[in-house]
Structure formats: structure tokens, C-alpha cells
User: Fold these one by one.
Assistant:
Number 1:
Amino acid sequence: MLNFEQTFLEWCKQENIRVISQNPILYGIQLFVTDGKDTVSIHLYNKGTVLIQGKPCPLLERMEKQYSKAPSPVSFDHIGMDEAGKGDYFGPLSVACAYIKKEQEFELRKAGIKDSKEISDPRILEIYRDYQNKVAHEILVLMPAEYNQKYIEFYNLNTMLAWAHAQTLEKLLGRVPAKVAIADQFANPRVLERQLLSKGQEIKLIQQVRAESDTAVAIASIFARAAFLQGLENLRKEYNIDFPKGAYGVEKIGKEFVQKYTREKLFYVAKLHFKTTNLIVR
């Protein structure tokens, strides 16, 4: 056991914090700890970095006070994968894979690269413009017409999403020497694993909860969000309608669109399998 792990475990013992379980992860170990009321996940990496995860609670505050509040970078060459538009009724689904090198980690963290959900849309587009030529990546964009056709083929969103991830990963692996890829965990990890193509099957795929804490996944999420925003903007220009983001409160715009362009045209701007479609066309 590393001295760092021993020090951490000794501190837990002194603080009456019990280790529930330990699991090996890439370049380190994951522990679940409890104070008898709350539970927190801790990633201890071999070089002494710490990643603390959990819902806001006194135990989490104690951990963050003892160690660093911000996750420390885990420096190794790898690919991050993420998507955008999955929960948006209008606009495309976009999937991005980004490959970052060990030496890029600090620069990206310093530049404020984090989960796209924590960054404004204008800033998302700025980051994409700044880093699209600095970070090797691939983006797959399924505009609504192609999305709807693919959904007819798969008839399952998770399977279709896994297919899109696998396609994008395979294309990026054709030009970068990655050995590891990290993605947000699917409800059933086998769904993504079954879709992997030849190159994707040769690397180590890690699926983990809150994967966006990883820098490569974070910038992939930014690239995917930028592609979604660009796709939505293209639809706005084509139909002269400001399509809203999200899936709630969009019926009014949907009905206005149908009245102006007919219900058949929804195929080209919206994800038709959403229940929202029934509210719009009924």
C-alpha cells in the first residue's frame, strides 16, 4: 500500500470515519467512506492526487477541508467522451471524443475547462474556438432528420447513444495513440461495450459516474455542447424560429412551427419519440 493511502486511512481512523469498501481503479484506488450518517467517494491516485465526490454534507465538507476542494488532475494521455442534446426536444444529438496528452492537463484546468453544464453557452463557443485546433477530437452530429431515422432503426435511446459513442471513438482512434478512454457510465455498461468497433475493443474503456470531473471528458462535453448549439442555430436560420433548449415548455413553439410548416416538418427539427410530440400535434 502506498504511503499516501496509509496516511489517508490513518486520518480516517483518527476522525472516526469508516472505510466501507475499496476498489482498484486506473492509477489508484477508490474508497467509499462514512461517518455513520453520510457516505462519500474518494479517489486516491498513485501520484498523490485526490478526487472527492458526493452530495453536499458535513462529511464532504470535512474531506474537502482536509484535502483539495477542486479535483486534482490525473495526468496521463487518454480520451474523454460525452454527448449533448440528449434531453433537448429541438436540435441535434452530438457526441464528442477528445484526446488530451499528459502535458495538456494543467493548461486546460487553468483555462477553466470543466463540465459544460457549469459553463455558459457563449463561453462554450469561445472555448471551442480556442481549443478546436489544439485538442485532437471527433464530433458526430445527428441532426433531427438523421436522429429520427436512427431511432427507428434502434428503437432505444441508450443503444443509439452507445452506437454514436462507438462510431466517434473509432474515428478518433484512427489518428491518436490512445490506450484509455473514459465515459460517463451507462445504466448498463454492456450497452456501450457491445457497440465498440475493432479499435475501440483494443483499448481500456472506463465508465464511471460523474466522469465529467475528468479533464478529457469535460472538454469533450464542451465540444459536444458547442456542436449542439451550432446545430440549433442552423435550424433557427433555416426556419426563422428561435427553437428553445430543453424539453419542458417547448409546446408553444412546436405548435407555432406546425402551424407554419406542417406537422410532417417536425421530423427535421425535433426528436419525435419525445412525449412532447403528442402534446404538439394532438
Note: DSSP finds ten helices and nine strands in the chain.
Number 2:
Amino acid sequence: MYGNTPPRHIPTGIVCKAGIHKDHLSISLEPEAASIYCQHLPTEKLSGAESGFTMSKEGTKYMIVDLGGGTVDITVHEKLAGGGLTEISRATGGDCGGTSIDADFIQLLVKILGAPLIHLMKQEQPDAYLDLIREFETVKRTITPSKQGKVNMAIPYATLDSLCKTHLKEDLSTAINASPYANSISLRGDKMRFDADLFKSLFDKTINNILTLLKEMFTREELESVALLLLVGGFSECALLQAAIKKMFTSRRVIVPEGSGLTVLKGAVLFGHNSEAIYSRKIRFSYGVRCRPIFNPEFNDQQHFIVVNGVARCESVFDIIIEKDTNVIRGTTVDKNYNSTIGKKTLTFVIFASDKKSPMYTDEDGCFKIGKATIEISNSSQSQNVEVEFMFGNTELSLHAVEKISGNRCQSSFDLI
């Protein structure tokens, strides 16, 4: 609900099969978890922080940059007087995580050995392929801006050499010497030796993508006063990335907590003990229900015109529950009324999300189906007016339903699609 992905909901059936009571499991959002954890760290555990600095000071605003494997998740928090955190802004960037560097490394090998051979190695020699990636992961963590000379990396030499001889009709060394990297890559035993500049260039695209995302964030008016960047996640330990961010944002302080790769995990534990640490969040999408109201020629377009039981209606209207970017505190509720159909024991409706603030129809660009709500009706012999209470402000979307006339609380379920 609060990330740039479809909303979260814990499947009750799966939780029960795992032997976990549904009330004992909650979803923690990664940047939030990291933010909560860093509230408890002393200055000496925050690399880049000035003496006496504390993130728990009232009014402190900071940007949490969660640098994981696949994406970069950014959240901006402000510390409130009551001790809670409120979300000011948020964004997510693809192709900005540590694995995108792995992908660029594989593309370098493709330029040397060809895509078919790399694909064959991945399919037929998965252990060797994984060893190659793991070694690259290990070596890339050691690279610093000042690194010069050669970077040595162990490779599954026997596997690569055998594949080259079988499919390229030449050994690995010959394949490298015939490639565009003949002057910057060489072999010594079972190690591949890279010129340091070439190895560091594998980080360029990913780091530039991150810098572009951060620059875009700081063009937002509400972030002008944010002077602190908190780097967390496994990729935040990359010295090249840290140096690039510090160079780009000289007027802002860049802080990296000790053991930044584990801040999310440790923060999630703290969140489990105190979910009220986050006071408010911003809704990332507009949410609504697909419906068929009476057709209004002044507002509805003809392509959505249909006739149902002799009545002119408008198909696939996006009936908004809550708009994108609405700031909601924990437990915020929105009430909507729906009428059941005579003879049907359940009231069912489909919930949609949209990246637009005020979508008109559920079939327009940017809209997507997220789930189906089913509400059991106590008396299907007559139409029931049901008040549905949608709950926002937590990390999950939930709902409750009550029949307005009888006051009966309905059994309801919400299943993500």
C-alpha cells in the first residue's frame, strides 16, 4: 500500500499452515524498519554523523535510502514530538540495486564469450555459475575509489575453459585475447585479472541511476530542508557509491550506520514490538472499487455505455475510496456503502489501484486490479445496505462490514489477486 508495488496483505491460509497465529505476524516496510532502528543508535555507530548528533531529536528530517539488491527504496521521515515518525515523501527506483551491477558484469562476459555460452553455463553448470556470481559479489565489496592496478577474481576456470573449447573451438585465454578487453583482462591460474578502472566502470550505470533518483527527490519542494541522507541496506556498504553520493550532495550530511546491511532486519524486530513507531504514512496509490453507476452523458464517455436490465449504466467506473498521496495516521478508516443483490448470499466487489490521483475508469492506463472483497449477507431475501469500513494507515489494507439496518457485523474476507 505504501511502496511502489501493489498493496500488501498477509494470506491468512498460508499463515495458519505455517503454524503462526495471524495476530502474531505483521508486515514491516524496509525503509521504515531501518529508520526505526537508527533512532536507537548512538553517534559513534553512525558513520558521518557529527559529535552529539541524534536521529531521535524532535523535528529532525532525514532521507532513508534503502540500497538493496534489486531496487532502491527512499523514504523521508520527520521525528515528531510524541516520539513517532511521519512520512514526508517516498520513491522507488528500479535497476538501482546491487544486482544490477552483477547483470553488467555478466554482460561483460557475454561480450567476451557470447550469450549462448553464458546461457549454457547457467543451465548446465549452475554450481559453477553461482560460484562465479558469489565471487564477484565478494570482490565488488572490496573496491574503493582509490583502487588502482589490478583486481583479482577467482573464476571456475576449468568449467569456462571446457565450455570455450567445446563451443567456441578455442580456449578461454584465446577468447579473452580476441575480445575488446584483451588489454584490460588477463588470466593467471584460476583467477581473472581486471584493470581496476574497468572493474570500477561496472558500477557506473547503477550509481548514476541512484544519483539521478536522489536529485529528482531533492527537486521536490517539501524536501528542500532535508539535510541528512541515511544509507542502509547491503549495497550501502559500497565505498564507490558512498563517495559518489557525498560528492554529489556536498551540502548534505551522508550517514551510514554501522552494520548497515542488517539495519532493516534489526529494525523489523523493533517494529514488531512497537508498530506505533510510525505515526503516519502517505498512500502511494489511489484505491477504489469497480462499479456501474447510472450513465451520465455529461461526465461519462460513450465507450463505457452499457444497458443492464433496461437501465443505462456506465461500465468500469473507478469509485475512489482514497486518493494517492493522502497522509494517513494509524487506523485511519474510510466508510463506503454498497447494496447487495436479492437472492445472493454474498456481496462481492473488486478493488483496484491507480498511480493517478483521480482516475475515472478501472480500465485506463495506470490502473490495476489488486484483490477481491467478499462479504457474507445474513438475509439474502432482500437487498442489504452494507457499510464497509476500509482501514488504512497500517502496513496492510483491511476491511470490516456491517449491515446498516440489522446492525449485523458481516463475515468478510479480502484476497489479493
Note: The chain has three domains: 45-96+207-282, 98-201, 286-416.
Number 3:
Amino acid sequence: AELMRTNAKLRDTLARAGDKSPGIAQQVAALQSAVRTARQDGDKAGEEAKAQANLVRAKDRELERQAKKVEEAAAVLARNGELENMVKDLARQLEEARAENRTLNMVNRQREGDILRM
């Protein structure tokens, strides 16, 4: 509304000045055109800035999702290492139990042999 009033005042002043000097009217019209073009350019720049800001926000969200996936993968990798260690430990325990079982079987055979000899 304020812009319209200012524009109307400029037109009135232009009309009065145009009667006195026709060259001024052309200069004012050129300046008004330049102002309109500048406003349009400013609006376009504002829209582009808004679009770029939205794009940056979308990329930030994607980066956050990817960072979360990396954290999850690191946790899985750590858990995998723990499980591998557990499997190795259980394999070692199994081998120890088998060795102990072999030893006990040998002792048992020797005792049975001793009993048969008696």
C-alpha cells in the first residue's frame, strides 16, 4: 500500500515535470523500469537462496542418516570382533576338553589293563 502511494506521488510529480521538461519523464520512466527489474532480480535471488537453503537442509539430513549408518556399522563390527573372540575361546576350550578326554581314556584303558592283569 505504501509503495502504491509512493508510486502515485511519483507519477503526479512526473506528470507535472513532464509538462515542463519532456526529457525528465523519459529518465524517470527508465529509472522506474530499472527499479522494477532490480526488484524482480532481488525476488529471483531470494527464491534461489531459499531453494539452496532447502537443498542444504536436505543434504544435512542425508549426512546425518549416513553418519548414523556408519555408527551402526562400527557397532556391528565391534560386536563381530567380540563374537569372533568368543568363538576362538570356545574352540580352545573344546580342544582342551578333547585333550582331557583323550587323557582320561588312556588312563581308563591302563586301569582296565591293570585290572585284567590282576
Note: The first helix runs from residue 2 to 20.
